[in-house]
Design goal:
The complex is a heterodimer of chains A (261) and B (786).
Chain A (H helix, E strand, L loop, with lengths): L3 H11 L3 H23 L5 H21 L8 H24 L24 H22 L2 H12 L4 H8 L3 H25 L4 H4 L1 H4 L19 H30 L1
Chain B lengths: L2 H73 L3 H33 L7 H13 L17 E7 L7 E7 L1 H9 L8 E7 L6 H16 L3 E6 L3 E7 L4 E2 H11 L7 H23 L2 E2 L8 E4 L6 E4 L6 E2 L17 H9 L8 H18 L17 H10 L10 H13 L12 H4 L2 H14 L7 H4 L25 E6 L4 E5 L25 H10 L9 H31 L7 H17 L1 H13 L9 E7 L5 E10 L10 E7 L7 H16 L2 E4 L7 H14 L9 H9 L6 E6 L9 E6 L3 E5 L4 H11 L6
Parallel strand pairs in B: 15-16, 15-17
Antiparallel strand pairs in B: 1-2, 2-3, 3-5, 4-5, 6-8, 7-10, 8-9, 11-12, 13-14, 17-18, 18-19
Classes of the chains: A mainly alpha (261), B alpha+beta (786).
């Protein structure tokens, strides 16, 4: 099941829109790098991991032409399969070079394109992919909202400061802080919905936000009637965002450590 | 027994029993876990030992094979091949050494859980070795000499590809500097790019492009560009890079973050950086590579001062060039990459904002002892005043939301610096928050004008890596712009003698005691403009007599002629006695190979036989008739039939003008150079008119190559967009094609030639057949006349 956003994004990738490729790289590059490092188990160097993660996206440009959305593969599985293919190709190449031969043409494994119940799901990887999506949404909000508004959200939710402290630091009243928070939160919900719709191929992936405590449409909950956002739902949303943000920070730190050697 | 007591006893026994059972289960799990852990470690150790042993054997076998190939290549006189095989041999020996290390030390240490103790040997030692400066004396053959300078040391080169040497100018040079009012220069840094020493033409083009900008800020003392090398001379600033200073500050601080004194230093370095950036931006220049490694800290403690160095990427903000993605990851705004990918021009964006991002990233790295891997969302976790955190975040915010200028950021930073307790400063206290960005920037502007009247000399500061403040405002209508500008005053109506007045002089050491309470005023200098005026309006008394001037001019002309003839001779010598003498590696490999040869005996003989067959040239010396296939995208591909021969005599005259763009990664195999030169000459004899050659000493070729590089931007050579981009560019040119010599087309590392013409193109490996393939494409495009 593909949404319009997914198909238009794939269309952009197919049209070789470099901005779309950069977006993909910026969002999922660290996740791919860490996954490649895990697979390599220290046998492949940092530079190679960086090259391979770039090659992963380069390989996407070939496979995207053959991608069949009807076969029901998850977006995360899609990325993972490409990364695995690239790593395997690199190992084959090394072995071939070791033997003194040339580079043999590697056959591309496309079995991942269909949903497979037997395929083991790497939970850490799946969580990382979801965190990367949330991070991308936060980044979009940062670009879109006023610097002070976003700083208030950042200080209050991501840094965990009290409303009183934030109000004192910025020089505004606490009710203003609440209003600014609500404003940024609503933008974040909208962008999160877009990001998840863009980078999801299956229904299950689309429902990931709700499963992780991120209610994207609180007004329609309960009776289904539109109304003011429930405060408890907002608090839950903010807590989940903060937790995911910090988890993503952890992942970035891991990536950074690997880069630093 | 009381029934209640007995019930309690039973409950107690049950509870105790449950606790005991839980403890036993817990212990069992723990013990089992430990046992499992130990067993896993042992099995992993055994596995790694076996793997490494097998790898070691494999590496040794491969080494033997490579050593034999080296010997064989030497015997049959293939020097380049011997060099190639000796490189492979060294790699195998290196791999064998690493296996040995792991077998006897690394794996054992890991088994006993003390691998952390080896981190120094495994990581830091190789890192330091890689970061060590290059050889102290440049090779005369590859780099040449620097007249007037004595090389005394070297520095580690950065990503630009140039080599850096520290040198001392001799008395003559000192006199020249004194004459140019540069002042005393004890030591200089010479940055040299030599085509013979591995530098490539695009590197030289990029660096020389920045030269004009750097000269306008008085950063370059001297430069020279010849057909073989390009170098420029800057004043040397002794000190350590900011990254080293940052690491030391954090080593001396607690894990929570920097102490007060160190935070003051951080803000001081930040201020220095912003003052330098403000100067660049006022001169309409964009530094483009702000990072800790490009900041040198000179002095210690309160007198320490940060200097922004390396202007290899400095770009005029009004440049019409296409934006490129050059810069350093994590200190370069991702927005820059986005804009570059969109193909925007430099003048269409505000480059100063990207420098502001870099300044924010540098401050982040100083506070966190890390780099902002998360971009603008990077979290500041270490101890830091809230207002400073705000400043860093604002600097790294989204392009439209960050500080509009370095001056606005500087105004905010100075408020935090001047506070008795920076931790009590709130974001609302910052000028940009309370008064707005414009008011904050104006504060800095007004300080600049206030201190403009103070005496300053441009002699002392000229040439320092941190450019002197350009105090003269860019707006000529502004009255303040005219204050302090040098003026010519007529002193004698009769002789026409005049004198220059109003020359600003240095206001002395701007950095006083660095403290939270001291607010450093911006140093103001009108050096750039004043120096230009001063040069042109030199007092007539300084001039030499006419006869002497003529004599000097003749002497200069004679020297130029001599230099030119030397250059020509060296090129001729290079062509006549071109040699690729085997280096120490080859000699070592040769000796090793001889030993192996004697020891190997029969095995060696067998290898020799198999290798001899392999070493036969794969390409037949006689060209064969190609079968031409033209693909949908316009690429011409050729295959060769075994039967017929291509009749060269049947070919007609070629009428095409083609630009040669050498993009081969150094080091270039000398045999390849000969092959390319021969190919170009062959095609040239048939009528192809080349613009430029392999060494690209031609000015027109350099200019066109730079223009093409700008057009292509960051598109990789293997990309499908690469060729259409060249074709699009070609439409605007009067010549007919572009021949790119590179080694990265289509993922292949084989040196290839890519000929792009208006309709058809081809990519062919550089071999004897290449000439014919290129002729076919020229024919396809209609450039061969009857």
């Amino acid at each position: 099941m593909l949404t319009n956003m997914t198909t238009s994004f794939i269309a952009r990738l197919r049209a070789n829109d470099e901005a779309a490729w950069f977006e993909l790289w910026e969002t999922f590059g660290p996740v791919i790098r860490i996954q490649l490092s895990r697979w390599g188990r220290g046998r492949i160097g940092v530079e190679t991991v960086r090259d391979l993660s770039q090659e992963t996206l380069a390989a996407l440009s070939n496979s995207i032409e053959r991608y069949d959305p009807a076969r029901g593969a998850r977006f995360s599985t899609w990325l993972l399969a490409i990364a695995k293919h690239v790593l395997g190709d690199e190992i084959d190449r090394r072995m071939a070079l070791k033997r003194g031969g040339g580079k043999a043409d590697a056959q591309f494994d496309e079995t991942w394109m269909k949903a497979d119940a037997t395929q083991g799901v790497d939970e850490i990887y799946e969580a990382s992919i979801f965190c990367a999506k949330v991070e991308a949404a936060i980044r979009m909000v940062e670009r879109e909202t006023d610097f002070t508004d976003f700083s208030i959200y950042r200080m209050r939710v991501l840094d965990g400061q009290s409303g009183k402290d934030v109000a004192s630091a910025i020089g505004v009243s606490e009710p203003t802080i609440s209003r600014k928070l609500a404003k940024v939160r609503s933008v974040l919900r909208a962008r999160l919905g877009e990001v998840i719709a863009t980078y999801s191929f299956t229904k299950e992936e689309l429902a990931e936000a709700e499963r992780n405590g991120l209610s994207l449409n609180p007004n329609s909950e309960g009776s289904g009637e539109a109304g003011p956002a429930d405060k408890a739902v907002d608090v839950l949303f903010d807590d989940a965002i903060a937790e995911i943000y910090h988890r993503q920070m952890q992942l970035r730190a891991e990536d950074e450590q690997a880069l630093l050697g | 027994m009381n029934p209640i007591t007995s019930i309690l006893s039973v409950v107690l026994v049950v509870i105790v029993g449950a606790i005991a059972l839980a403890a036993v289960i817990f212990l069992f799990i723990k013990l089992f876990g430990i046992t499992f852990l130990v067993l896993r470690n042992i099995f992993r150790f055994i596995g790694e030992e076996i793997t490494d042993t097998l790898r070691f054997i494999g590496a040794i076998l491969a080494s033997i094979l490579f050593a034999l190939l080296v010997i064989l290549s030497i015997v049959i006189g293939r020097w380049s091949a011997s060099k190639h095989y000796s490189g492979a041999l060294m790699a195998e020996l290196h791999s064998a050494g690493r296996c040995m290390y792991r077998i006897f030390i690394g794996n054992i240490a890991r088994l006993f859980g003390v691998s952390k103790a080896l981190e120094g040997v495994e990581r830091r030692v190789p890192e330091m070795m890689a970061a060590a400066p290059t050889r102290d004396k440049p090779s005369k053959k590859r780099v040449g000499t620097f007249e007037g300078y004595t090389i005394v040391g070297s520095l580690k080169g950065g990503g630009s590809g140039g080599r850096l040497y520290i040198a001392e100018p001799d008395d003559t040079k000192q006199a020249v500097f004194a004459k140019r009012k540069i002042g005393k220069v004890d030591q200089v840094v010479i940055k040299v790019f030599s085509l013979k020493d591995g530098s490539s033409l695009p590197q030289i083009v990029r660096e020389s492009r920045a030269l004009d900008a750097a000269r306008s800020l008085g950063l370059v003392l001297e430069h020279e560009m010849t057909s073989e090398r390009f170098f420029y001379v800057m004043r040397y600033v002794p000190g350590e890079s900011l990254s080293v200073v940052t690491q030391r500050m954090h080593t001396l601080s607690s894990i929570e973050g920097l102490g007060d004194d160190h935070l003051r230093s951080v803000m001081g370095y930040g201020e220095d950086l912003l003052v330098a950036l403000d100067t660049y931006h006022n001169a309409e220049l964009w530094h483009k590579d702000v990072k800790p490694d490009n900041i040198i800290v000179d002095g210690h403690g309160k007198d320490a001062k940060a200097h922004l160095v390396d202007f290899g990427l400095v770009t005029p903000m009004r440049s019409a060039m296409t934006l490129t993605t050059h810069g350093t990851e994590y200190f370069r705004d991702p927005e820059l990459v986005r804009q570059a990918l969109r193909g925007v021009k430099v003048h269409q964006i505000d480059g100063s904002k990207f420098d502001v991002y870099g300044a924010g990233a540098v401050m982040f790295s100083m506070i966190e002892n890390s780099f902002p891997a998360h971009g603008g969302l990077s979290q500041l976790t270490k101890r830091c005043p809230e207002a400073l955190r705000w400043i860093v975040r604002r600097a790294m915010a989204e392009y439209d939301r960050r500080y509009p200028s370095a001056a606005a950021m500087l105004a905010d930073l100075r408020v935090v610096m001047s506070a008795p307790d920076p931790f009590k400063v709130k974001p609302i206290d910052l000028p940009s928050v309370s008064q707005g960005d414009v008011a904050a920037a104006n504060q800095i502007e007004s300080e600049r004008y206030e201190s403009f009247d103070e005496p300053a000399s441009f002699g002392e500061s000229a040439g320092t890596p941190v450019p002197p403040r350009v105090g003269a405002p860019m707006n000529p209508d502004n009255d303040a712009a005219r204050v302090g500008r040098p003026r010519a005053r007529l002193t004698s109506w009769w002789s026409g003698r005049y004198a220059v007045s109003g020359t600003p002089t240095n206001q002395g050491n701007r950095r006083g005691a660095r403290g939270m309470g001291s607010l450093h005023k911006a140093k103001v200098n009108v050096q750039g403009h004043a120096e230009r005026v001063n040069r042109s309006l030199r007092d007539v008394d300084d001039r030499k007599p006419a006869a002497q001037q003529v004599k000097d001019a003749r002497r200069r002309a004679r020297q130029m002629r001599l230099r030119a003839s030397e250059r020509i001779n060296s090129v001729r010598r290079g062509k006549q006695s071109y040699s690729n003498t085997p280096g120490a590696t080859v000699v070592f490999a040769g000796v090793l190979g001889m030993a192996v040869l004697f020891a190997g005996g029969i095995l060696g003989l067998a290898m020799f036989t198999s290798v001899f067959h392999h070493s036969k040239p794969m390409i037949p010396s006689t060209p064969q008739m190609p079968v031409v296939v033209v693909r949908d995208d316009g690429r011409v591909m050729t295959t060769y039939s075994e039967s017929s021969m291509l009749n060269l005599g049947g070919l007609k005259e070629v009428d095409a003008q083609v630009l040669v763009v050498p993009m081969l990664s150094p080091p270039i195999d000398p045999e390849l150079v000969i092959e390319i030169e021969a190919g170009l000459a062959a095609l040239g004899s048939m009528g192809v008119e080349w613009i430029g050659d392999l060494s690209s000493s031609d000015d027109q070729a350099i200019r066109l190559t730079a223009e093409l590089a700008n057009t292509i931007g960051s598109i990789p050579m293997g990309s499908s967009a690469f060729i259409p981009k060249i074709q699009q560019w070609l439409e605007t040119k009067s010549f007919d094609g572009v021949l790119v010599l590179g080694s990265m087309f289509g993922g292949s590392l084989e040196p290839s030639a890519m000929l792009v013409m208006d309709e058809f193109h081809t990519i062919v490996p550089i071999s004897e057949r290449a000439v014919y393939d290129l002729l076919l494409v020229l024919n396809r495009n209609g450039y061969i006349r009857d």
